[in-house]
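Rotation project, supervised by the postdoc (A.L.). Task for the rotation student: set up a whole-complex structure prediction and record inputs and outputs verbatim in this book. Inputs entered:
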Amino acid sequence: MRARTRASNRRRRAGSNAIALSDVARAAGVSTASVSRALNTPELVSEDVRAAVQAAVTRLGYIRHSAARALASRRSMTIGAVVPTIVNSIFSAGVEAIERRLEEAGYALLIATSDYSLERELRQVRILLERGVDGVILVGRYHRPELAQMLHERAVPYVCQGAYAADGPPCVGFDNHAAMASMAEYVLGLGHRRIAMLAGIAADNDRVIDRIAGARAALNRAGLDFVPGGLVEARYDVAEARLAMKRLLALRPRPTAVLCVNDVLALGALFEARAEGVAVPAELSITGFDDFDFARNVEPPLTTLRVPTAEMGRGAAEQLLQRLMGQSPPHARLVPTMIIPRGTTGPAPAG
Amino acid sequence: MRARTRASNRRRRAGSNAIALSDVARAAGVSTASVSRALNTPELVSEDVRAAVQAAVTRLGYIRHSAARALASRRSMTIGAVVPTIVNSIFSAGVEAIERRLEEAGYALLIATSDYSLERELRQVRILLERGVDGVILVGRYHRPELAQMLHERAVPYVCQGAYAADGPPCVGFDNHAAMASMAEYVLGLGHRRIAMLAGIAADNDRVIDRIAGARAALNRAGLDFVPGGLVEARYDVAEARLAMKRLLALRPRPTAVLCVNDVLALGALFEARAEGVAVPAELSITGFDDFDFARNVEPPLTTLRVPTAEMGRGAAEQLLQRLMGQSPPHARLVPTMIIPRGTTGPAPAG
DNA sequence: TTGTAGGCGTTATCAC
DNA sequence: GTGATAACGCCTACAA
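Outputs recorded:
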């Protein structure tokens, strides 16, 4: 019965009809170790072996089994990212940049959404850890304390994106407080004194909290504050933004400027103002935050603050990769932002 | 030397300081098999074992090792999705819906982008296969032939999303040809005769090709065609759309209606028309496709065709999950679309 | 440079 | 219901 070949023997088992590395080894007439080396560290094998393995691989259509690789090498070559949502183009652009960079380095991206909930973020990280990710990318400064602990216990490096903090965990981002403060100052410089703010839901969201605080700080320095009732929150959704904006437009005296926490809200504000017949920027100035695709193309084009989303995503991926390679990149990286004055802001109306 | 405990013994090795299932077994005073069962098929173990294992798991902070599970069970509990890009909210909303459904079922989502290239899509699928995904979700009807072959060889099920075809591989989508034809008919019904089309890049893109063909077929049935020079392509980007729209607006006689292949292009067209002082819809009607967030909120609100993006995503995930569970869901599922008449369309101007 | 062989952490097949 | 134990497919000292 020695006619029973290894192939048939293999096929007998478990229903695995896939080509394994051992099949390649046999076909190439070398050991499995050599195949592994030819594939992973080709510079360590002779030209002959490399060629034979290469030929066998293509002839057999061999595809590596990454679970087995992960188990043996103790690295999954997978990175996990948890973002609030990918439907907001700010995050999706960041994720796409991350994916691109990781792909170049041979890593895959496991994606999860937190829905702006720190609780959910924690759960997602746990799942990612089960999946054996080699690193994690998060958004923002606020996280459940258990999160850092879990990551630390497993020695899984992580990078936070979108908010700069010199002291916290590694990050790539900017100072939300300062950025929004500068926008407030810009509007103050235009002569506005009755200023309101259209914010996102602040709960659990450090970016929103920092931006609100930044704007308020700038106003305070000028001896002002938001107009009474002039700080409203809305979900990141044009319809919600319009509703919230309606409340701001109903204030008397009406604010002459509305600072929005992001561009989606700003467009909602702009649409609502137009629907209500309020002239922008003659009667009312509106500012956005992010500078996404539509910002420069609406009428009038939106004054906003440019955030280098893709650069942050790529930078976060880069930093993680470097850590994974045993390097020690700068702990925190600050990316630049810039106010882009366009058509939705103008001098405060007289009176 | 028998004082050398298993723990220290374990710690000695390979740097793996993670808690393993065997540690849980020891702590709970049961076999590894029982732990595995208590975790995966709790109904097969006694109440005592279940409780002991549960306690040990939480006490030790045990996290399962999915690579090992994948290797042993031959299932990675991971699904791969390849989409053109996630920056377009149509796709990101679909991906988010997919992720949600998969999460409920305990699957993780590996994401990859094709950048609208079938070549790249094929490469990405190969990578996903290396990753051992249990299933794949794709977009559209057009794919490299090698793709189906690879998937078939490995017996990995897949579902295509966003385009309905009764005969091709399993899919969840709608008939792009018919949908765009209905939109063309709607515009014809408004009395328009000089009609143009702002399309996406058609190469490799069945959705775009079908939509163009659908519109043309409807026009043909009315004895018409696009106005000469009235079919232009643009990347899905507001700025590009405006450029393309500029060419359309320069045609003489000017078209009275422009059918856009999606909402992003339609907004670009709308912005450009407004910038050029062309009244919408009095002088020019514009239609979109998708009904994304901004569509109903711009001024005037965009007439478009609603596509149930999230439903398609969820449906695709659902179909894949059913296949994975050995069921045989309907091979192709048609989701409904609907024309949403809003403010950018009106009767053809006289003359 | 190449091969041998042990082990990575689970699951699944057997007996009991 | 429970426990041994052999895979699962690959990597990586270690030896040659």
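Student's summary: Residues 89-104 of chain B form the longest helix (16 residues).
Supervisor addendum: Residues 30-34, 37, 44-46, 49, 68, 70-74 of chain B lie near DNA strand D (CB under 10 Å from a C1').
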